[in-house]
Amino acid sequence: MSYRFSSARRLACALIATTALSGAFAGGAFAASLDHYTVTKNGVTLDISAPRADIIRVRAGDPALPEDASWAVAQAVRAQHVPLNVTATADAITVSTGEASVRIDPNTLAVTVYDKAGHVVLADARGAALQFDPDHLGQGFRLRKAMPIDAHYFGLGDKTGPLDRRNQAFTNWNTDNFGFGVATDPLYKSIPFVLGVDEKGQSFGFFMDNTWRSTFDFGKTEPDALDINVQGGGVDYYVMTGATPADIVQDYTYLTGKPPLTPEWALGFQQSHWSYMTQAEAKGIADRLRADRIPSDAIWLDIDYQDKLRPFTVNKDTFPDLPKLVADLKAENMHLVVITDLHIAAAPNAGYAPYDEGMKKDIFVHKADGSTFVGPVWPGAAVFPDFSRTAARDWWGEQYSDFVKMGVSGFWNDMNEPSVFNTPTKTMPLDNIHRIEEPGFTTRNATHAEMHNVFGMLNTEATYDGVLKLDPDQRPFVMTRASYAGGQKFAATWTGDNSSSWAHLQLSVSQLVNLGLSGFAYAGDDIGGFAGDQPSPELLTRWIEVGAFNPIFRDHYQKDKPAQEVWVNGADQEAIRRQYIDERYRLMPYIYSLADENSRTGLPIMRPVFMDYPKVVAGGDHLGGTDGYFMLGADLLIAPPTTWESPAPYKVSLPGVGWYDYWSGEKLASDSTMETPKLDRLPVFVRPGAIIPKQPLTQSTGETPVGSLTLDIYPGDDCHGVIYQDDGVSFAYKAGHFLRQSFTCKMTASGLSVDFAAREGDYKPWWTGVTLLIHGQDAAAKAMLKGKALKADFDASAHVLRIDLPDQAKAATVTVQR
Length: 818
Ligand code: MIG
Description:
Blueprint: H1 18-26, E1 30-34, E2 37-41, E3 44-52, E4 55-61, H2 75-78, E5 84-88, E6 93-96, E7 101-104, E8 111-114, E9 120-123, E10 130-132, E11 141-146, E12 151-155, E13 169-172, E14 189-190, E15 193-198, E16 203-208, E17 214-218, E18 225-230, E19 235-240, H3 245-256, E20 269-271, H4 279-291, E21 298-301, H5 322-331, E22 335-339, E23 344-345, H6 353-360, E24 375-377, E25 380-383, H7 390-398, H8 401-406, E26 410-413, E27 433-436, E28 444-447, H9 448-470, E29 478-480, E30 483-484, E31 492-494, H10 502-517, E32 523-524, E33 526-527, H11 537-547, E34 553-555, H12 570-586, H13 588-601, E35 606-607, H14 609-612, E36 630-632, E37 636-638, E38 650-653, E39 660-661, E40 672-675, E41 684-686, E42 691-694, E43 709-713, E44 719-725, E45 739-747, E46 751-756, E47 769-774, E48 782-785, E49 788-790, E50 792-795, E51 800-806, E52 812-817
Parallel strand pairs: 14-30, 20-21, 20-34, 21-22, 22-26, 26-29, 29-31, 31-32, 33-34, 43-47
Antiparallel strand pairs: 1-5, 2-3, 3-4, 4-19, 5-6, 6-7, 7-8, 8-9, 10-11, 11-18, 12-15, 13-17, 15-16, 16-19, 17-18, 23-25, 24-25, 27-28, 35-36, 36-37, 37-41, 38-40, 39-41, 42-43, 44-45, 45-46, 46-52, 47-51, 48-49, 48-52, 50-51
Helix pairs in contact: 4-5, 7-9, 11-12
């Protein structure tokens, strides 16, 4: 048996030399402090380190460890090494950070990770837990982890199927899957991150940082094992040991990065279609939205605005003056987003600069024989920038120059799995050659099999960085279809080509919730459904209602399908839809404050109920009936019917007592309530203890609201809320030009008090006053500010006490007494 200890960067406290350690072990036991711990057995090398005290990293190879490089985890993060306390005896090696520990069986190298309290977080399965080259193809590995009977699994991005991944199996292989069904796999993204929660509420995270095709089988084949097969590359995974699901998501986004704060307009309602065919048609859609008073922020141009479907061109016949369209839209506070697919037309000597220049600079992916790979996509024969090269990403970024100068606000990277037509694999040959030229990586060639799953993310990195470089004062907005773990740093995403059916509307909840848990806080689906038949009036209305509470809210639909804009199906349907879109704009201060929270913590905007209430996991497969619900932030719970199209009454199970009905303000008597589906009512409930900032209705985020900020206060335990504001578009917030203010409320024997904390940042708000709407009150309430009586109105039917205050920039307390 041989042990090898190494420590690339010796810690001051590692006073005992490696040789002395081995000597000590030969005598029976040893103890030491190291920055990582390596052990070999039967030719296999295992390496344990900890970038943070609650996160264990495991690497393994046969015989050598894989290169310490990653597309997902920044070098600065991987370079962090928490000191490890290592003790060993003949039967166990224990490696501890103080917060988490790993026990390694020296005979089998089986690994068990424990939390601080000594509970097992994640253990290797019995039997062969790590096998190299299981398929005898000369590469790949298989890893098996024990699956406790009470554990439930989430994450993996927008995979189809129920919210809980248990008893299902999935493939990570970015795939253009037009018209996918509710159980189709794989789809467009590969995010090999799993959040586990057991019925005691204990959580863990597992991230396999490997870009190769992989499968995750959650007990489908073997009931008590999470069986992971990876077709190439090295074993490099992280186990996150935080106590709660929220801790785990924060750990995961500590590793892979947090989304940058979005431009606020991207939280508004957006209208898209494949395609608005002319400049006049696109302008007409914006005009109709304004005329119909449908609040909205962006119009999207799909592929047909281009000349011969060639990226970075404009069809001058149908879009004669794109700068004018941008300016016309801007005059209506409307933004323009344009598609820019990655497949550059292979059109030599046709005056198409992206091809001619790109060829001159050798930008495109090669075939195995070294020639440029050409495959058919929208423009016909096309070539594909090799985004793993920094030079190719820089070149790609420069292509945006004209659009950025024109004032186009956002860019849409579609087809970046990459999708290739007329081939059964739907993508490029696996032996195509990419060139890795990337700080932190050894410069080398890599096959498409290795780069496929990360290709789309690198496409978005190139877009984000390029657009930012062209206009360093504006927050870029990029939308992508394909991505990999960590892609949230560069782009928002949507779930691709869904269909107009109730089943797909239902599916969108688990897809978007799992995307949020997987780092992608900015996610949406095609509202109304992309493919399929025209949605029924009721389906489109319901979808708009739900979308109003999703992070990204975009109506988009396929070519050759009847119109799907908000006004189709007549005035009655439009009125309901408008009511929900209006509500989203009133809620914009709350939603934008969630975006601020996400940019600092990584916590999702749209969440499962179990994130804040892990005890619902004890309800089994359906999480106590909450697996079809979702939350917008910690305060709003959206509870659609379990069977969406059914008119039958259904029971809503809330995670506690004292919740409020969002629409009526009524406080519910128990922790459940009955709902009878009605088209104009999407059941939304409010956490007791919520303080929700709202604003007067505007028609876009670019329009300044007039009047007071409203704080809707729902008395209850742990009563708090926050507002975040800034200019919504620039990076001035990074220099302190923002406003963040938190509020709390306390119940007292005679009433309650509301505290305003002092404001952070120097951004000057639009409001001139603050209106408190205190729910669940009675007529006897009287209010005071700093000992001075306040005028308060009581609305007896809604049990709301309304208090109008001047703006409260400083710390202040309002008391309400009976
Ligand atoms: O092969 O650009 O998912 O949203 O409208 C279809 C046309 C290509 C697929 C996208 C869809 C978009 C469509 N695109």
